Amino acid sequence: MKARFGKVAVLFGGSSAEREVSLMSGAAVLAALQAAGVDAHAFDPAERDLHVLKEEGFERAFIALHGRGGEDGTVQGALELMGIPYTGSGVMASALSMDKWRTKMVWLSAGLPTPRYAILEHDSDWDAVVAELGLPIFVKPVHEGSSMGATKVVEAGQLRAAWELAARYDRLVIAEEFICGAELTAPFLEDRALPLVRIVAPGGNYDYQHKYFTDDTRYDCPSGLPAAQEAELQAMVMKCARVLGCRGWGRADLILTEDGRPYLLEMNTSPGMTGHSLVPMSARVAGLDFTALCLEILQGARLG
């Protein structure tokens, strides 16, 4: 196994708002790879300069970073320049998928369904936004994940405060119409879609705490959807990944209304790999345990 992959850096931690989650993801991946006999080592870009990877002879990188500085194309670009193959999407797809606004524009241009939206600024006409999108409205930073800085606005008077919170995380803030329905997540591994996961959070509030630190959220995998409907959604997700240029592995989040209409929310190119994470859960149903999943992702590491 050591000869197969060479010296592997597991990149985790980083300096984004999602550092805490990345530390958990990376620790799990590192343990799995080491247990499988891979010559894997921890590497935190917040504590060590990336150029050390080349100096110390690393031959592959498993990216377990989340958010900006790790999932947005910057680390991918550095690894490209050093000639070190890495897991997940390349520079363009990583940068594009991290940008919720531009992701939506690409999806819409490809005829893929996504909720209506508006970009918020300090001088936005808050009443006009409410009139256009209705209530409730989700407000979130364009370049953050894990529900960081996100607010569900249920009254018009809350909109500006929601923008102010999101603006602490990002200069670009997006407001999105609320779509009522089942919350689903759809992982993929290389060119195959994995089983859908249905998320049932307390009060419908799938926030940071419920994602990572409580056992109150229920996850159904298999999702309970009819096989034909699940297959249609999986095909849509593979298309939404292709038009963004994604590769390797990832996870799309979506809402399915009661009358069967899907709405794509966002694409994650470096999903969580914690004990509460959804890709490992889906992979298990597909017959891949956590270690096998990590090895398959690592096998797909590449340049360009």
TrEMBL record:
<dbReference type="InterPro" id="IPR013815">
    <property type="entry name" value="ATP_grasp_subdomain_1"/>
</dbReference>
<keyword id="KW-0479">Metal-binding</keyword>
<feature type="binding site">
    <location>
        <position position="266"/>
    </location>
    <ligand>
        <name>Mg(2+) 2</name>
    </ligand>
</feature>
<dbReference type="GO" id="GO:0005524">
    <property type="term" value="F:ATP binding"/>
</dbReference>
<dbReference type="GO" id="GO:0071555">
    <property type="term" value="P:cell wall organization"/>
</dbReference>
<dbReference type="InterPro" id="IPR011761">
    <property type="entry name" value="ATP-grasp"/>
</dbReference>
<keyword id="KW-0961">Cell wall biogenesis/degradation</keyword>
<dbReference type="GO" id="GO:0046872">
    <property type="term" value="F:metal ion binding"/>
</dbReference>
<dbReference type="InterPro" id="IPR000291">
    <property type="entry name" value="D-Ala_lig_Van_CS"/>
</dbReference>
<dbReference type="Pfam" id="PF07478">
    <property type="entry name" value="Dala_Dala_lig_C"/>
</dbReference>
<keyword id="KW-0963">Cytoplasm</keyword>
<feature type="binding site">
    <location>
        <position position="268"/>
    </location>
    <ligand>
        <name>Mg(2+) 2</name>
    </ligand>
</feature>
<dbReference type="InterPro" id="IPR005905">
    <property type="entry name" value="D_ala_D_ala"/>
</dbReference>
<comment type="function">
    <text>Cell wall formation.</text>
</comment>
<feature type="binding site">
    <location>
        <position position="266"/>
    </location>
    <ligand>
        <name>Mg(2+) 1</name>
    </ligand>
</feature>
<feature type="active site">
    <location>
        <position position="18"/>
    </location>
</feature>
<dbReference type="GO" id="GO:0008360">
    <property type="term" value="P:regulation of cell shape"/>
</dbReference>
<feature type="domain" description="ATP-grasp">
    <location>
        <begin position="104"/>
        <end position="299"/>
    </location>
</feature>
<dbReference type="InterPro" id="IPR011127">
    <property type="entry name" value="Dala_Dala_lig_N"/>
</dbReference>
<feature type="active site">
    <location>
        <position position="277"/>
    </location>
</feature>
<keyword id="KW-0460">Magnesium</keyword>
<dbReference type="Pfam" id="PF01820">
    <property type="entry name" value="Dala_Dala_lig_N"/>
</dbReference>
<keyword id="KW-0436">Ligase</keyword>
<comment type="pathway">
    <text>Cell wall biogenesis; peptidoglycan biosynthesis.</text>
</comment>
<dbReference type="GO" id="GO:0005829">
    <property type="term" value="C:cytosol"/>
</dbReference>
<dbReference type="InterPro" id="IPR011095">
    <property type="entry name" value="Dala_Dala_lig_C"/>
</dbReference>
<keyword id="KW-0067">ATP-binding</keyword>
<keyword id="KW-0573">Peptidoglycan synthesis</keyword>
<feature type="active site">
    <location>
        <position position="146"/>
    </location>
</feature>
<dbReference type="GO" id="GO:0009252">
    <property type="term" value="P:peptidoglycan biosynthetic process"/>
</dbReference>
<keyword id="KW-0133">Cell shape</keyword>
<keyword id="KW-0547">Nucleotide-binding</keyword>
<comment type="similarity">
    <text>Belongs to the D-alanine--D-alanine ligase family.</text>
</comment>
<protein>
    <recommendedName>
        <fullName>D-alanine--D-alanine ligase</fullName>
        <ecNumber>6.3.2.4</ecNumber>
    </recommendedName>
</protein>
<keyword id="KW-0464">Manganese</keyword>
<dbReference type="InterPro" id="IPR016185">
    <property type="entry name" value="PreATP-grasp_dom_sf"/>
</dbReference>
<feature type="binding site">
    <location>
        <position position="253"/>
    </location>
    <ligand>
        <name>Mg(2+) 1</name>
    </ligand>
</feature>
<dbReference type="GO" id="GO:0008716">
    <property type="term" value="F:D-alanine-D-alanine ligase activity"/>
</dbReference>
